[in-house]
Amino acid sequence: MKKTVLILCAALSLGACSLFPPPYKVPVSQGNLVTKEQLSQLQIGMSESQVTYLLGNPMLRDTFKPNEWHYMFTSIHGTPDTQRSEVDDLVLIFDNGILKEIKNN
Fold first, then answer.
1. CA–CA dist 57, 66 (Å, integer)
2. Where does the secretion signal sit in this chain (predicted)?
3. Which pick of 38, 46, 56, 91 has the fewest CB atoms within 10 Å?
4. Is 38 a residue whose pLDDT tops 80?
5. pLDDT tens-digit map of 60-93
6. Residue 45 lies in a domain
7. The domain containing residue 73 runs over which residues?
8. Measured distance CA(71)–CA(77) in Å, rounded
9. Contact 20, 61 (CB under 8 A)
10. For residue 57, is it within any domain?
11. What is the CATH number of the domain that holds 80?
12. What residues contact residue 84 under an 8 Å CB cut-off, 6+ apart?
């Protein structure tokens, strides 16, 4: 009798956990926040230092393609209040230190 009551109490106690709201998950944002205003100031022919001044350091510089800079932004567990980047994936291609091509995905 005592075992049955104990098992019943344990089952009801564990089932009550689903009544609580889900735990808070911290929004994790990684990458570069690039605005459309910054993107409009970006021009073909700018030097690498001018681009770095405007956008900051790139998120990714490929070892095998050192002239290709990637500005990316991701957010995990984001809420409607989480700050978002207006540009999620931006690829800049340089030729001899001068901006040659802009790819905005």
1. 14
2. 1-18
3. 56
4. yes
5. 888 898 899 998 887 777 677 777 777 788 899 9
6. yes
7. 26-104
8. 21
9. no
10. yes
11. 3.30.1450.10
12. 73, 75, 78
Per DSSP, the residues of the chain read: -HHHHHHHHHHHHHHGGGGSPPPP---EEEE----HHHHHH--TT-BHHHHHHHH-S-SEE-SS-TTEEEEEEEEES--TTS---S-SEEEEEEETTEEEEEEE-
Which tokens belong to 32?
Answer: 């570069």
- Please measure the distance between the N-terminal and C-terminal CA atoms of the chain and give it in whole angstroms: 66
Nearest CA-CA partner of 103 in 75, 55, 68: 68
Residue (of 90, 46, 85) closest to 68 by Cα position: 90
* Residue 1 in domain: no
Q: How far is the C-alpha of 86 from the C-alpha of 105, rounded, in Å?
A: 11
Q: Place 45 in a pLDDT band, splitting at 50, 70 and 90.
A: very high
